[in-house]
Each structure stands twice: as structure tokens, then as C-alpha cells.
Amino acid sequence: MKTKNKSIKILVVEDSKVTLKVLGNYLASMDVMEPLLAETGTEALELFKRERPDIVLLDAKLPDIDGFEVARRMRGMELAEEWTAIIFLTALNKDEDLAQGIAAGGDDYLVKPVSETVFHAKVRAMQRLVEMQRKLVDLTRKLDSANAELLRLSTTDALTGIANRRALDDFLSREWRRCIRKKKALSLVMLDIDYFKLFNDKYGHHSGDDCLKLVALQIARAAPRASDLAARYGGEEFMLVLGETDEDGAMWMAERVRQMIADLKIPHYATESKHVSVSCGVVSVMPEDRLSLETLLLSADAALYQAKRDGRDRVVAGKYGNY
């Protein structure tokens, strides 16, 4: 890709060896110029593809391919964010000839025979445009990168590094609509760290934050598919969205996550196992327009609290609308 500090590459396409040598000499007297020379349209197109020049000086009349056609093909070969200045070299100076060149993709004209003063002026002008284009592309990339980072920050939980509630709501809405279109099941796993308030009281909030990070990492590891999302729902509650997943698959996933967190063996005096555990509520549904995403969330929340009432550190399956 082009960078703003590199020299300017200029391709000269001219079938007259005399004119080609004269223009080559003109360029040799200019700094930051890397001349590339071609005598035919075919050779010019090959050089263009390989070298990606910044400026092309193109004879309108070539022995194999018409110069206007060469310009059109060059424009078709330009990559995204690329722009090449094309200056036609021609003895033709009628208005219709100028119009044809512009229509073919040209940016300016030099009428032969070309004086060195005019040549330098035209090329310098195009050089300034090329450098402005580079700066614009560089600025655009920086803005795109900054916007991407802002989007990432706005959709990421600052503590755990997984998706936040905003990202969850957006993803869940899209996945709900997608599953309606594909007629596939959608499942939610709502997870809550057991006795987390007692954990904070006993071990301190710094340890509590570390615990949340470790639990979030395990949940995220269990959701690698594009149709899955691990998110922090709020406080010590987390959510797994499992697209195209029925109840059996969601129950298996929830049990897997529960065991992965148990395997961390984070000490917690208040639990039966004496280690950090989670309770999980699972709900699956075949989304339809007449059904409600809010009802699905409420049903998952109800299943989670049933798991807590049943003794915690377990997975409970709920039913859509049962809350």
C-alpha cells in the first residue's frame, strides 16, 4: 500500500523512442520520482499491475492498444482507496479529443511536443494531488481505527472484557430475527455466581473483581461460534446466547460452563464445595413474530432463580412463558 513518505512512481507510456528518452530526461531532473518506461499498451498495463504507479503519462495513440482503452483498463485495475493521476500525451487538441480522454479516465493533457517547463509544472501539480490523496487515505484509516476502537469500548464490559449489556441487547435482537428467518431454535443460559456478596465481604472487592474476570473468561471460552455470545448481564450475572441451539444443546453447554468454573477451584467459604460455583437457568424457544424476546429473558431469569432455590451450583431448564 502507498505511504505518504515514499517517492512518487511515474509510468511513461510512449511508442516514440525519441519522445520517451526526452521525457525520461525531464523526469531525471526531478527528485522523488521513480520513472517506469513502456512503449506499448500491453507493457504499460503489465507495469501498472505490478508497480502500482502514482502518475501515468500516457500516449493517446499506441501501436497495440488505443491509449484511451489503456486508461479505462487502468481505472478498472485500481485497488480500493487508490487513485492514479493519468495525464494524456497527444498531438490532438480538439475539444472532442479532450472530452474523450477525460471520459476514459484521464485527469489532464500534455500536448506534444512537450516543453520541459510545462511538463514539470503539470507533473508537480499531479504530485501534490497524489500526496493529498495519501494524506486523506491515511487520515481515513486513522478515523476508521478510532471509530472501531470506540465501538469496541462501547460494547465491551470494562472489567471482564466480554460483551456488555448494550452489546447483548443488540446481538440478541439480531439473533432473534435471524432464527425467525431460518426457523431455528434460540437458547439462553443465564448464570449467577453463588453467594457473591459473601465472597466480596470475606475476600474483598479486589478479589471479587478477579473472580468476575476468571468466570467471564470461562464463559467466553465456551461460546466460540459466530451465533454465540457471552456477556455480562449485570453485577455477578452473565448470559450466554446460543443461536441455532435447542434445549438439549443448551443444557449441555450450561453444564459444561458450570463445570469449567468449578474447575477453577477459586476458594469460597460460603458454598457447599468451598469453591466458587454458578447457578444456571436455561430456556429454549423457536422464535416467531407472535412471541416476545422479553418473555424469553424473563423465563431465563425465572429458571435461574429456580436453580438457586433448588440448592445452587446446578443447571435448571425452564419453559418459555414460565415465570
What would you say this structure looks like, in words?
- By secondary structure, the chain is α/β, with parallel strands linked by helices.
- It is 49% helix and 19% strand.
- The chain is built from 10 helices and 10 strands.
- It has helices spanning 17-28, 41-51, 67-77, 95-103, 116-154, 165-182, 196-203, 205-221, 247-262, 293-309, and strands spanning 8-13, 33-38, 55-59, 85-90, 108-111, 186-193, 228-234, 237-243, 278-285, 315-317.
- The strands form 2 sheets. A 5-stranded parallel beta sheet has the order 2-1-3-4-5, sandwiched between helices.
- α1 (17-28) links the parallel β1 (8-13) and β2.
- α2 (41-51) runs parallel beside α3.
- The longest helix is centred in the middle third of the chain and has 39 residues, at 116-154.
- The radius of gyration is 33 Å and the shape is elongated.
- It starts with 7 loop residues before the first strand and ends in a 6-residue tail after the last strand.
- The model is unreliable at 1-5 (pLDDT under 50).
Provide key terms for this protein.
single chain, 323 residues, 49% helix, 10 strands, alpha/beta
Q: Supply the number of helical segments.
A: 10
CA-based gyration radius: 33 Å
Which word captures the global form? Answer: elongated
Uncertain runs are: 1-5
How is the largest sheet built, in terms of strand order?
Answer: 2-1-3-4-5
> Percent helix among the residues?
40-55%
